TrEMBL record:
<dbReference type="InterPro" id="IPR001383">
    <property type="entry name" value="Ribosomal_bL28_bact-type"/>
</dbReference>
<dbReference type="InterPro" id="IPR026569">
    <property type="entry name" value="Ribosomal_bL28"/>
</dbReference>
<dbReference type="GO" id="GO:0003735">
    <property type="term" value="F:structural constituent of ribosome"/>
</dbReference>
<dbReference type="GO" id="GO:0005840">
    <property type="term" value="C:ribosome"/>
</dbReference>
<comment type="similarity">
    <text>Belongs to the bacterial ribosomal protein bL28 family.</text>
</comment>
<keyword id="KW-0689">Ribosomal protein</keyword>
<dbReference type="GO" id="GO:0006412">
    <property type="term" value="P:translation"/>
</dbReference>
<dbReference type="Pfam" id="PF00830">
    <property type="entry name" value="Ribosomal_L28"/>
</dbReference>
<protein>
    <recommendedName>
        <fullName>Large ribosomal subunit protein bL28</fullName>
    </recommendedName>
</protein>
<dbReference type="InterPro" id="IPR050096">
    <property type="entry name" value="Bacterial_rp_bL28"/>
</dbReference>
<dbReference type="GO" id="GO:1990904">
    <property type="term" value="C:ribonucleoprotein complex"/>
</dbReference>
<keyword id="KW-0687">Ribonucleoprotein</keyword>
<dbReference type="InterPro" id="IPR037147">
    <property type="entry name" value="Ribosomal_bL28_sf"/>
</dbReference>
<dbReference type="InterPro" id="IPR034704">
    <property type="entry name" value="Ribosomal_bL28/bL31-like_sf"/>
</dbReference>
Length: 62
């Protein structure tokens, strides 16, 4: 599932509105990456959004 395990960001649903005002449903998915991170000294593989990864909320394992 496209969910960030740090901030809990989920896909957002809405409508796409064309120039002729035809409405169609669409989904905005967060940019999720599966990376190895350091969690309390142990290395775990978690799903994390790139916003949390870029802001330094977790320490990436080497």
């Amino acid at each position: 599932m496209a969910k960030c395990e740090i901030c809990g960001k989920l896909p957002r649903k809405g409508i796409q509105l064309s120039h002729s005002h035809i409405r169609s449903k669409r989904v905005w998915a967060p940019n999720i990456r599966r990376v190895k991170v350091n969690v309390n000294g142990t290395i775990k593989r978690i799903s994390i959004c790139t916003r949390c990864l870029r802001s330094g909320k977790v320490q990436r394992a080497q």
